[in-house]
Amino acid sequence: MKVLIVGSGGREHAIAWSVSQSKRVDKIYCAPGNGGIAQIAECVDITAMEFDKLADFAEKNQIDLTIIGMDDPLVGGIVDVFEERGLRVFGPRKNAAIIEGSKSFSKDLMKKYDIPTCHYETFHSPEEALLYLGGCNFPIVLKADGLALGKGVLICQNLEEAEAGIATLMLDKQFGDAGDTVVIEDFMVGREASVLCFCDGTHIKPMTSAQDHKRAKDGDQGLNTGGMGTFSPSPFYTEEIQQFCEEKIYQPTMDAMKAEGRDFVGILFVGLMMTADGPKVLEYNARFGDPEAQVVLPRMKNDIIDVIDACIDGKLDQIDLQFEDNAAVCVVLASDGYPEHYEKGKLISGLEKFDGKDGYYVFHAGTKLTDEGIVTNGGRVLGVTAKGKDLKEARKNAYEATEWISFENKYMRHDIGKAIDDAK
């Protein structure tokens, strides 16, 4: 098979790595890719939003399967373009990707079909939102309705912060049109977990659990980021909780989308909060999480191509999805100053130390291949991932591996997964 992956981040590198493990695949392309992906795939100079160019490339090169990694092209309708041209593609169509593209749509869906989530209200004008805030109990959560690079969620501790948040989202347009509509919801207390699920439009199969660390600094301080590290599995996501989620959240979400005429085929990411009242949905995404993919995919035993084929063909119920009985931790190496201002073009050394080391991975996010070597080319630069027999060992291995890599302005959190150690 010839496979094309669309995207350029750590998630796409993890997908490309997983595809490269398949005995069914001879050739991998990635558009546009990055410095690390270039070592296992042929990178193509087409951006993720150039749908017709990507489809032309797939036709010309007789691509057997295209996997869409990123949210923007999915929400924009890239799958529809490929399908209209008879090309085999994996990801939800535009009318289903709205589950991530619009927070208000997903909240209304949960409300209509009685899927557990918190109380919320939706606002289209800053005046209405500000008026509503006057009667709120704090803390509360503000969410930009549209896509905002994983950063459009503001947790506000008091009225002053909430009013400033409305100004940021709706008046200053920090995230552009994504903030035209804002969802204000109750703040949920509990432990978070992320569960990625394969979907074929009717059936849904959850993968192993993970937990992301969104804040830029240790102790969950600082600004929201795209994710500073993650671990898998979550010890708090028990078999009992999984059974509840399968019966009350995962399958009902699939059924709800089908009932709305929006059959969901692809990856459904379910962000959960395990509250005192049981698990509730924080958010949905319509693709692999980043960096969740970096700890989930290395633990998957199945050939990813077999699973994706089953999703596209509506035969997911025939797949026995299996994961290793171990743990994985990913620590993101970022450019100092991320998520605000940071420098690019810093030479990276030590990447070769991962070669041939079983259970250790370095997934490239913001990197670029130059004549001098691989250099930094983004805020999140690398995802250093390691396995271990349990989370404690995986965490130790991952942090040791971060020391193998050097670049100017290298920055990371030092407490990824630490709360788990403390809890135990």
Automatic annotation (TrEMBL):
Domain ATP-grasp: from-to ranges: 107-313
EC supergroup of this enzyme: ligase
Positions in coiled-coil regions: none
Record EC number: 6.3.4.13
Cofactor(s), by name: Mn(2+); Mg(2+)
Pathway(s) annotated for this protein in UniProt: Purine metabolism; IMP biosynthesis via de novo pathway; N(1)-(5-phospho-D-ribosyl)glycinamide from 5-phospho-alpha-D-ribose 1-diphosphate: step 2/2
Protein name listed in UniProt: Phosphoribosylamine--glycine ligase
Family: Belongs to the GARS family.
